[in-house]
Amino acid sequence: MSKILVTGAYGLVGSQFIGDEYQRIGSSDLNLLNQKYVDDFFYMSEKNGELPEGIIHCAGKVGGIQGNMNNQGQFFYENIFMNTSIIESARKFGIKKFIAFLSTCVFPDDVEYPLSSDKIHLGPPHKSNYGYAYAKRMSDIQIKAYREQYGVNYFSVIPCNIYGPNDNYNLESGHVIPMLIHKMYLAKKNNTDFIVWGSGNPLREFIFSEDVAKLTKLLYDNYDGSDPVVLSTSEEISIGEIVNIIAELMEYGGNIIFNKTKPDGQYRKPSDNSVIKNMLPDFQFTPLREGLKKSIDWFNGNYPKVRL
Ligand code: GDP
Questions:
Q1: Does the pLDDT value for residue 90 go beyond 90?
Q2: What is the pTM of this model?
């Protein structure tokens, strides 16, 4: 039986695709930056009668606000080559279905809210992540162009901020939730202040990684449209409130300090999840507290062997 190939299979989202129907690969199995390697991989798969029926492309160079700001060039280069190579190989080898991952941070900074898929290209992205954002926008263009020219059934999903087990818990380049969990763990252990970046005022929407995988698989089975699909709860919460919930769950009683010399980034990026809501009205999102608890338990159970 031909399988669904999952790239980035050891990462935050990829690790949530579990079961025999998936062929899972990570960066040590295939270097997606090089078209020839990617073509060779599919060539060998075809020769062995193991060509996948579809691809869920989770691999990407991603980071939090500081990771993006410090690595604009690398994030641009790696994402644009990974996307371009695998979409082209998929098309050449007749792969029927392909799902690419964008993010709500690829949207224009100055745009009317809520964010919906028709607004991706309406203006420049926020300056903190333009390298990543423009590279990811190009995968949307490539998919649309390939659909038009080659008739392939490829599309993108646009999740809001994802969190969960197997995240990148690096203390400089990670996303906000894994960094807060890691920093709070250390502050508790060392009896030090807990430092939050920025004012705590920005608003974000968060989705648990397991929900992203479930929704993506439901779309894989049921969606054939050309428009990217936003994956989000459409529920905003401030960074300050997230800090309080994590402090409560981790039983941290020390000082919480907001370091305003660190960037706030975009003030908010509220998204329109009506496509998912209409298509999958019974889908139950993991409540934030429950997802945070699972992420914290995972971190505590795996530290220090976490991805840093
Ligand atoms: P973004 O959603 O793309 O901006 O990326 P992040 O996941 O890195 O979230 C950034 C937001 O969280 C900004 O408003 C930061 O000021 C705030 N924040 C607070 N503390 C931290 C932290 O320790 N790490 C990160 N990455 N962001 C933090």
A1: yes
A2: 0.97
Chain segment 5-32, per-residue pLDDT in tens: 999 999 999 999 999 999 999 999 999 9
pLDDT for 65? 94
| For the CA of 204, the nearest atom of ligand 1 | 2
Give the CB-side neighbour count of residue 254, counting CA atoms within 13 A.
16
Residue 128 has pLDDT above 80, yes or no: yes
Mutate to test the pocket of ligand 1, among 12, 62, 65 (most ligand atoms within 8 A of CB): 65
Residues 6+ apart with CB under 8 A from 266: 105, 109, 126, 128, 202
Q: Is the pLDDT of residue 148 over 80?
A: yes
Q: How far is the CA of 45 from the centre of ligand 1 (A)?
A: 40
- Cis bond upstream, residue 202 (ω within 30): no
Residue (of 285, 155, 167) closest to 225 by Cα position: 155
Alpha-carbon gap, residue 281 to 261, rounded angstroms: 42
Quick check: CB of 126 below 6 Å from ligand 1? Answer: no
CB 80 within 8 A of CB 137: no
Q: With beta carbons less than 8 A apart as the criterion, state whether 167 and 192 touch.
A: no
**Pairing state of beta strands 236-238 and 203-208?**
antiparallel
- DSSP letter for 287, please: P
Please identify every residue annotated as catalytic: 132
CB 202 near ligand 1, within 6 Å: yes
Verify whether ligand 1 is closer than 6 Å to residue 239 (CB atom).
yes
User: CA angle 137-165-249, nearest 5°?
Assistant: 115
Ligand 1: which atom is nearest the Cα of residue 63?
Answer: 8
How do residues 230-281 score in pLDDT, each as one tens digit?
999 999 999 999 999 999 999 999 999 999 999 999 999 999 999 999 999 9
Contacts of 39 (CB under 8 A, 6+ apart): 89, 92
